[in-house]
């Protein structure tokens, strides 16, 4: 049912756009049929604001993070190129690489990425963690502004992003159902594994947020 609904919304939006801009053609706008796109969470602007809050004042990290994100593919992993990435992130001058490296290290300290050494030094490779998870843990540590957290929760429910449910009230990653402890009731005391198909996971958070709007997953 979700796809027909999306098509109806798109049709209505296109009809409205045509009424407002009757001379507009598809060639005049940019869409995902063109090359050079990357997937970006709908809440990225708000998450970028939160990550700047988490960094020390005067050391914003969101611009560096977004430039790195724009290079990601499905593997969520990058080989870093300091001079190029620093310039693309908007840093200039003799200190641009040094400043960029500082921001990358801050992103790692905050938990948004992890770094590994290689041929370009201690920050040659980077892997990107789910930003929802990082922000949830920061909120549990009372480091996220309440108004921004509530805005994140509400908007995440609106767009059907349930990643916040992956982290429990202790900040731990909730295991998938298939990762649950196996039975061990056989005669020899060995674990008995069930290899039958598992249902899709349904995660329920133990966290309580007074103003949260809870929406059920579509069946």
Commentary on this structure:
With 219 residues, this protein is mainly α. The protein is 38% helix and 8% strand. It is built from 7 helices and 3 strands; from the N terminus they run αααβααββαα. It has a 3-stranded antiparallel sheet, with helices on one face. A hairpin with a 2-residue loop joins strand 2 and strand 3. The longest helix has 19 residues, at 2-20. It is globular, with a radius of gyration of 22 Å. Mean pLDDT is 83; it is low at 184-219.
Indicate the radius of gyration in whole angstroms: 22 Å
Provide the succession of SSEs: HHHEHHEEHH
Supply the number of helical segments: 7
Strand content range = 5-15%
- What is the overall shape? globular
What is the averaged pLDDT score?
83
Strand order of the largest sheet: 1-3-2
Structural class: mainly alpha
Q: Helix proportion of residues, in percent?
A: 25-40%
Largest sheet at a glance?
Answer: 3 strands, antiparallel
The oligomeric status of these chains comes to single chain
Number of strands: 3
Our measurement of the CA-to-CA distance between the termini, rounded to an integer number of angstroms, reads 9 Å
Low-pLDDT sequence parts:
184-219
């Amino acid at each position: 049912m979700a796809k027909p609904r999306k098509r109806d919304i798109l049709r209505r939006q296109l009809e409205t756009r045509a009424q407002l801009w009757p001379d507009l053609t598809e060639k005049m706008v940019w869409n995902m049929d063109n090359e050079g796109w990357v997937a970006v969470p709908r809440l990225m602007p708000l998450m970028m604001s939160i990550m700047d809050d988490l960094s020390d004042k005067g050391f914003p990290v969101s611009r560096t993070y977004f430039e790195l994100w724009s290079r990601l593919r499905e593997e969520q992993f990058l080989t870093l190129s300091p001079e190029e990435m620093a310039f693309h992130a908007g840093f200039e001058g003799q200190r641009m690489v040094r400043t960029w490296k500082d921001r990358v290290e801050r992103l790692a300290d905050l938990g948004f990425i992890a770094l590994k050494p290689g041929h370009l030094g201690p920050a040659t490779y980077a892997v990107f963690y789910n930003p929802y998870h990082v922000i949830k843990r920061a909120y549990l540590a009372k480091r996220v502004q309440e108004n921004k957290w509530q805005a994140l929760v509400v908007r995440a429910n609106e767009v059907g992003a349930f990643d916040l449910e992956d982290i429990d009230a202790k900040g731990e990653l909730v295991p998938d159902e298939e990762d649950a402890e196996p039975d061990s009731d056989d005669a020899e005391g060995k674990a008995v594994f069930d290899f039958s198909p598992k249902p899709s996971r349904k995660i329920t958070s133990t966290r309580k947020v007074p103003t949260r709007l809870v929406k059920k997953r579509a069946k």
